[in-house]
# Entry
Amino acid sequence: MFSVLWKALNTGVATQNYPRERAVLPTRFRGRPDLDVERCDGCGHCTASCPAGVIRLGRDLSGYGSPEPGPANRLTVDLAGCTFCGACVDACGRGAFRMTQEFELASRDRDTLVMVARLDGSPEQNSGTGPGRISDSPSSNWPSIDRVGEVLREKIGELFGRSLHIREVSAGCCNACDLEVQAINNPIFDASRFGIHFVASPRYADMLLVTGPVSRNMAGPLIEAYNATPEPKLVMAVGACSCAGGVFSGSPETMGGTDRVIPVNTYVPGCPPRPQAILHGLLMTLEREAPRFAKIVRRRESTPGA
Amino acid sequence: MTTVAQVPRLIEELSAELSNVVDVPGLAFKPTGTGRFSLGPGPDLYQRVVPFLVGKGGRLSTLVATDERSRTGDFLLRALVMFDHDGLIVEVRQNFSGRLPVLISITRYVPAAHWQEREVAEMFGFELVEHPEPYRHLQHEHTAWDYHPLRKDVSPMRPVPTAAGRPPPFRVVSGEGIHEIPVGPIHAGIIEPGHFRFFALGEKILHLQIRLGYQHKGVEKLFEGRRPADGTFLAERISGDSAFAHAYAYCLAIEDLANVQAPPRAAHLRALALELERLANHVGDLGGLCTDIGFAYGASHFGRLRAEFLNKAEALSGNRFLMGYCCPGGVKHGIDETLLQEIKGWIPRVRADFSDVADHTFSSETVIARMEQVGILSGRAARAFGMVGPAARASGIAHDTRRDFSLPPYQALGFEPAFESSQDVTARARIRHREALHSMELILHILRSMPSGPIRVPLTRFAPDRLGLGQVEGWRGEIVTCVIVDDEERLWRVRVRDPSVQNWIGLALAAELNTVSDFPLCNKSFNLSYSGNDL
# Structure
């Protein structure tokens, strides 16, 4: 008994004060790949090496038409399905790719996860301001994680009675993402200090957190879980598979991503995303979705007899 | 270790009795590699020789079917039987011809074949006869019944044909007061999907059936056509918690085809990574067991400790799950003196920390009272079903691939597996405790004896039409990966046998006659992979 107490006192607080305290990353950690457009000659070695097939060389499309004839003039990297394996870095003979240590890549807009590089030197170098930007592009207006953390407590307090209840659905996941989602509940990351809790049934949930590319056999149960979640509800896709199919894209046995089955509010790329990245995604979803929820809650309150 | 030149006594004994079992002229065990022998192909070999070998102390480990119709006109089934005490692998081959070949099940004599036979039948379109449950195992009722994805004439890009079918029946246990409890596919915790059907009398589980396949992603088909080196990324994602072990088994298989051995330094680094993975998972499982019995002290401390191992894994490989670390021919990153010394200094600290928590947990009466005599799995059942890993070792089966088969560097380190004999949840918890301590000891040995030299060798040519075999003791048990490449050196067939395939039935048996409320505890004590099973 005393030894247990002694151990507890001796250990002290294990919890990292994320997001205020930044994650300590080892030098070998692989985050988002980055591209030096100057060095790229469009040889396509990276495209062939990518296990998730998210690097594509191509030409601009005119509307929905076919690409114009001529050599490839754009290289796109879809971070949503990227496994951060570094195969592109190894494949590139010209050192155009490098792995950065950025991992807080969650996005509410699927398109901002696509990194676009123009190979013919035309001015615009990326698609937008999301995590899919290329490093030396103009500064982004991406909300800083500290800012998100600050407003979070307040927002959840207002809207969900100080809590957000999540139902996790693993749909074809290799279980690495599941383990990382479990890890945000451990003493190190401790999601409950944000009022975030995992619940046993979609009936109690405010959010469905989906991992895996959605195997065919799980598509039905996932839709049922979605329908069983009361409105207003959120959906967060966690991991490369859930965002875009990941390494399983191309298999007819998977649906190729959660958004092919149910609408998704937030995408958290990574293979698997580290716990801080998942927390980041959760915090971000709440900030953005807050106004919509407030409206629904107000509407309910103003309805007589509700 | 056995060399190809000398025929081991066991094989001589088996050869002497072979003619009593099958009457095929000229049939003999042919050496195919170090400690590996093959038999056949010949008619009826599967249903006659495999039960014979299992009766002689073999363990049916893996069934590998291939569609060789374009080459020989037939399907070929290989059954890998392991003789753990002798470190021998015997491959029994049989051809099957016809549009719907008939596979005569041996499950009634060799229960270990039960799920793999069903998998072979549905994936290759065999008619399974004499099997107690001849239903599809991984594909569900909404898939057309004549869809057999691993046949070569099924395009990997074609959408799966659907049908309006009905799920196969459960074996119903009926009687007064007996009720059915369906659980899943979506479970209450943050775990993978699967369906459990309990037949219970009050609180007591009379019978449990486990239906999986929800995680089926067509992984084996997805491998086909890739370059061998590119398959590693997919192998890592067969079961995320065993990412390294699966990648290691896959790399061993293709190194076998290229007839290359990873350099000694790479073998040491691979062993280091494998033990780190084992530690993270064993410690995490102990935490999970504590969670399931409401022992918050253990749950949070083991949860905290697990992160330590993941952090070291990340320092070594750049990924918390060691993804991207194993590569064909060796490992991706070396270890520098700083990291080596850091791990060396860290092990004694983390071992003391872990031992404190484990001692407190195992000396707590509340913990032992909940675990003891719960979820008993007899050694006889574990042996019959060919169970592997800690789950089998907790039932007294002292089998460990690290010792039994010549996987460097474990032999040089003088490794001995741990085993327990009480067969219950306590045994499976204690096995994890002891193996974790072993692994920390092993890591120190590995670091002390770290050889110098290269960490990677190139693989140039892959021998076509040969079965490349990789066998690794992951934290959950023996992983077997078989690889065959075609003439263009592209992957032609990859067979992955996760330990879960053999162990799921153990959970169903262990849960019987326990209370429904103890089921989560039994489940956690096995902690099997759904994804690795469903592929």
In short: The longest helix of chain A spans residues 275-302. Helices of chain A lie at 2-11, 45-49, 87-91, 145-159, 176-183, 216-228, 240-244, 275-302.
